[in-house]
Amino acid sequence: MTREDCLALDAADPLAGHRALFEIPAGVIYLDGNSLGALPKAVPARLAKVVAEEWGRDLIRSWNTAGWIDLPVKVGAKIAPLIGAHPDEVIACDSTSVNLFKLAAGALALRPDRHVIVTEPGNFPSDLYILQGLADLVPGLEIRVTPRAELADALDESVALLLLTEVHYKTGELHDMTALSTKAREVGALTLWDLSHSAGAMPVNLTTSGADLAVGCGYKYLNGGPGAPAFAFVARRHQEAFKSPLTGWMGHAQPFAFDDDYRPGVGMARLLCGTPQVLNMSALDAALSVFEGIDMGMVRAKSIALGDLFLTLVQDRCDGLSPACPLSGAQRGSQVALRHPNGYAIVQALIDRGVIGDFRAPDILRFGLTPLYIGYADVWDAVDHLAQIMATEAWREPRYAEVAAVT
Ligand SMILES: *Cc1c(COP(=O)(O)O)cnc(C)c1O
């Protein structure tokens, strides 16, 4: 594969035009959309309008006149088709971590006779930490941390909930959501899927896979901006019985009745807790316009092709880096992960050359592949920089070893 071959692939790419919907700074190859999605061009104008007109001019009237109060439901309904859910099964609110807490605690209430939550070691920290905090609150709750290969066997009649991240945040490994959800259902356990590295990157079908609950991130592949609200999904069949443990006023059946007693809102409204983050939520709403009319199957096909290209070029041209992600595209999310003991410094050297990926301790170099704004020649150029850094050992410069607060 040559750079010219990659340019030809870009020229024939049906998704290539989508790059124009994003602000991509000149001289940057952005391979970190799995951590903070790039800025969609629709966002700045929307935010300017929300600030100047809706907030600045119309003030509190905008809760009604600009529909601020409806944003969590409206944005949830826009996310729904990306994850194979019905529009009334998804709501945008809070952070992924907070939604994990609400849904895990709510799942326990749906299975009152069971006292086990199964998850896997190496899951994203919040997913594990939230369960640890829940175990402190719920007497008798056991968090059964089970290696990936043994998960299906760990599901038995004692299990209330299986909580997994569909695409592993470090290695990009993909779980078989349908197989595990089916197994869980056979023993009467519920499933909670963290879609932080799936939503907007690949087709997800919560309905056909039989998932019960899900959460996901608004600022990664959904491009909602730093700190964007997350989303929560509760399958219709569970909504009526579902109880959120965070019974804030916005989740009340009639928030503006100001009753002393809590009564849950209808459907997903009960997942709300406090006042929606209108600025962030408006940014996410505008950002989701990039997915209008998009075929996620096409996005997935390109993502796999970009990942395969990346891994082949690394194998051919870079010494000392070993793959930490599955080599088979079908088993890999939308990222490539490589291993090197000096991974941090190598990533800093790349960033210095305009190739932005990230590092995950202890030794993983992570490169997110976002098919809506990354092309084949971008991958070629990124690996070209990586090959030069490895060949010249440019990463040994002392300044590349200085560790910042956020890696
Ligand atoms: C990014 C990510 C989160 C983020 O949680 P926040 O509450 O937004 O900080 C949670 N889970 C997974 C798997 C993630 O990748």
Compose a concise summary of this entry:
This protein is of the alpha/beta class and 407 residues long.
Could you walk me through the main structural features you see in this protein, from its secondary elements to its overall organization?
- The chain is an alpha/beta fold.
- The chain has two domains: 135 residues, Aspartate Aminotransferase, domain 1, CATH 3.90.1150; 246 residues, 3-Layer(aba) Sandwich (Aspartate Aminotransferase, domain 2), CATH 3.40.640.
- The protein contains 14 helices and 15 strands.
- The protein has a seven-stranded mixed β-sheet with strand order 4-10-9-8-7-5-6, sandwiched between helices. It has a four-stranded antiparallel β-sheet with strand order 11-12-15-14.
- Helix 8 links the parallel strand 7 and strand 8.
- Helix 2 packs antiparallel against helix 11 and helix 4 packs parallel to helix 11.
- It is globular, with a radius of gyration of 22 Å.
- The mean pLDDT is 97.
- Bound molecules: pyridoxal-5'-phosphate.
- Pyridoxal-5'-phosphate binds next to helix 5 and helix 6.
CATH topological fold name of the largest domain:
Aspartate Aminotransferase, domain 2
By DSSP (H or I, 4+ residues per run), the number of helices equals 14
CATH architecture of the largest domain: 3-Layer(aba) Sandwich
Enumerate the spans where pLDDT stays under 50 for 5 or more consecutive residues: none
What composes the largest sheet?
7 strands, mixed
Approximate helicity band:
25-40%
What is the rounded distance between the termini?
A: 32 Å
